[in-house]
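FW: tagging you since you asked about this chain on Friday. Here's the raw sequence from the shared folder, copied in full. Didn't touch anything.
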Amino acid sequence: MQLAPMIDILLLLLSFFIITRQLTRSETELSVSVPTAEEGTQKNRSRGEIIINILGDGSVKVEGGQVTLEQLHDKLSAVAKQWKNQPVRIRGDGGVNYQRIVEVIDTCQKSGIWNISFATQRPEPAK
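HL: got it, structure written out here
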């Protein structure tokens, strides 16, 4: 029995999963400091979940690019037409104006997106 083809396939699968994992992690903006909550968790992403980052200055980033609310509406409308119950996660900076987050939620709802979750994190343990 030849093992070389099986090893080749395993290496290809391993590289595929490593690259895919790195691409999904790049969608989360490191400059966004999400609010803390006692029950906050680093929940696993849903399959096909869209991450909307709202930075401290109020700018909105999706898929690594800055977008306006109109562009966000167009993008989400196109996705909502194809996928029913499309999940969206909003990562709002803790210092961003609450009105800006409400505007993004309103844009999601106008686009037909209702499956919205919010990113939080656990507070740092006291030292």
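FW: Strands lie at 50-54, 60-62, 65-67, 87-92, 115-118.
HL: agreed, and The domain at 29-118 is CATH 3.30.420.270 (Nucleotidyltransferase; domain 5).
FW: great, closing this out.
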